[in-house]
Design brief:
This protein has 24 helices and 13 strands. By secondary structure, the protein is α/β, with parallel strands linked by helices. This is glutamate--tRNA ligase.
């Protein structure tokens, strides 16, 4: 049997008003008669702290393995991690798998993998031994039963033999009377004889916690400030089901207390649970931890972020090509800031800067566009070798290239990286460079100024330069050779600036826009020689581009522009 574990003393002030505090909430009290439990007394407990931290900071993240790790859960884990690391404390991972029907080993492994991918390594938990294990709720049932029996013996809870039908009838009556659907306390005053008769019959029963009929609870939330509840809205609640399984609020309280958790940082949807948990803390004689309830993550329409808004799990973003450091950076900014305009943080920087006092209590909007932008910032901040390896492997895995390294890969990454925010974006960027949509471009209205600037004459001179071999010779000399040739070619045509480089771009790349034209043509030249580009990439080599150029019917192209322009005008 598990041993009872005592919490270390915390620096928290709990103010109790004796005149109004019911005797059964005093730890030393042992009732002689059942009837005293329902004296109409009130009580008030206030928990506050003048310091954000204490000598031993211990926080926990407690996911349920019933699905994927939601971005909201990931942010909660991150805030706990940052708080622990910034205060020299411990980050505990606890698996809340008491929902036996929905909990799966696969979900647990996925959650653990996602946390590891984000870099949120835990000090205690599954796979990491500690002094407060086991760290799965399913392995702690004997502990819950032990504490439940302690509460039963001391009078804080009682056996309730109400059937499901009886409980449903109580709800219906309360609804008719426009009252909260709270338990009426049918078995709260039962005599020992009545209880024994039901036990002998084998009637199923639950354990219900006795809630004072009057009074209030007040806590000083580290994010929300003072929060209070009236007890008259809460009936006697179940802590152990009739099948012997503990209820969530009871498990959580026992776990946090026996694991010496000093700060409970969790989502605001758990705020209502604090009332029940505080009553259990008091009944068991454990001091309450500090509470901090983080705001929800909202969709752009300010509703709760859900699957209908797109990807919501960490695993989905991982598969989409997002970097863990970008996810961590963005999640940290959902409700927190360091007080400056800086938005770029590494995990180490966040540990240095994080303070729970700067967490905003208002809901944070999840902006997928900004997340994408931030990923691009982190992607381009990677060391050159790491970025080249990452994108090179992407190109090989998708079949664009036959190899993932080499000078072509290095040059291509450096040329295209500014247009890549996600690793998969690199496929489109490279495929776009390798393509040659000349006819589509020349037929567009946007190409009209270039076409009318004597492009046909420019093309004739350009083809002649290629056929003579002078352009290829220049490209063999690299960037310096290209620059020298361009300057000479422009001088021969009395062109410079845009009037020189725009037609060069169109004729060489088949496009009006793109990365640096010099680096692009050198890459196309080298790509044709390297043999690294896979056949399915549909690469149009320089030689093939000039074959296309020779076949352009410039006169027909110019004549056909009139009906195109007319159609565009009508459409507009």
């Amino acid at each position: 049997m598990a041993a009872l574990v005592a919490m270390p003393r915390m620096r928290m002030k709990i103010t109790v008003f004796p005149d109004a505090f019911p005797p059964f909430l005093c730890r030393s009290y042992r009732p002689k008669k059942v009837s005293v439990f329902h004296r109409r007394r009130s009580f008030s407990v206030s928990a506050s702290s003048t310091k954000e931290t204490q000598d031993q900071v211990r926080v926990r993240f407690a996911p349920s393995p019933t699905g994927n790790l939601h971005v909201g859960g990931a942010r909660t884990a991150l805030f706990n991690y940052l708080f622990a690391r910034s205060n020299g404390g411990k980050f505990v991972l606890r698996i809340e798998d008491t929902d036996l029907e929905r909990s799966t080993k696969e979900s647990e492994e996925a959650v653990l993998n996602d946390l590891s991918w984000l870099g949120l390594d835990w000090d205690e938990g599954p796979g990491v031994d500690g002094d407060y294990g086991p760290y799965r709720q399913s392995e702690r049932n004997s502990l819950y039963k032990q504490y439940a029996e302690k509460l039963l013996e001391s009078g804080y809870v009682y056996r309730c033999f109400c059937s499901s039908e009886e409980l449903e009838k109580m709800k219906e009556i309360a609804k008719l009377k426009q009252l909260p659907p709270v338990y009426t306390g049918k078995w709260a005053n039962a005599t020992d004889k009545e209880v024994q008769e039901e036990l002998q019959r084998g009637t199923p029963y639950t354990y219900r916690f006795r809630v004072p009929k009057e009074g209030s609870l007040k806590i000083n939330d580290l994010i929300r400030g003072e929060v209070s509840w009236n007890l008259d809205t809460l009936g006697d609640f179940v802590i152990m089901r009739s099948n012997g399984q503990p209820v969530y609020n009871f498990c959580v309280t026992v776990d946090d207390a026996t694991m010496a958790i000093s700060h409970v940082i969790r989502a605001e949807e758990h705020l209502p649970n604090t009332l029940r948990q505080a009553l259990i803390y008091k009944a068991l004689g454990f001091p309450m931890p500090h509470f901090a309830h983080v705001s929800l993550i909202l969709a752009p329409d300010r509703s709760k972020l859900s699957k209908r808004h797109g990807a919501t799990s960490v695993g989905q973003y991982r598969e989409m090509g997002y970097l863990p450091q970008a996810m961590v950076n963005y999640l940290a900014l959902l409700g927190w800031g360091d007080g400056t305009e800086n938005e770029f943080f590494t995990l180490d920087h966040l540990v240095e800067k994080f303070s729970i006092g700067r967490v905003n209590k208002s809901g944070a909007i999840f902006d997928s566009t900004k997340l994408r932008w931030m990923n691009g910032q982190h992607l381009r901040a990677l060391p050159s070798e790491e970025l080249t390896k990452l994108i090179g492997e992407q190109w090989r895995s998708t079949g664009i290239l036959t190899e993932s390294e080499g000078s072509f890969v290095e040059d291509a990454v450096q040329l295209l990286k500014d247009g890549i925010d996600l690793t998969p974006d690199s496929d489109k960027a490279l495929s776009n460079l390798l393509s040659y949509p000349l006819h589509e471009t020349l037929s567009s209205l946007e190409a009209k100024p270039v076409l009318e600037d004597k492009l046909s004459e420019f093309a004739a001179s350009f083809i002649a330069a290629y056929d003579s071999g002078e352009l290829l010779a220049a490209l063999e000399e690299g960037h310096a050779g290209w620059q020298k040739w361009v300057k000479s070619f422009g001088k021969s045509l009395k062109r410079k600036g845009k009037s020189l480089f725009m037609p060069l771009r169109v004729l060489l790349t088949g496009k009006l826009h793109g990365p640096d034209i010099g680096a692009s043509v050198l890459l196309l030249h080298n790509g044709g020689k390297s043999g690294i580009i896979a056949p399915q990439a549909e690469f149009v080599t320089l030689d093939e581009r000039f074959r296309v150029l020779r076949k352009v019917d410039w006169e027909a192209l110019i004549k056909n522009r009139s009906p195109l322009e007319t159609a565009a005008t009508v459409s507009t």
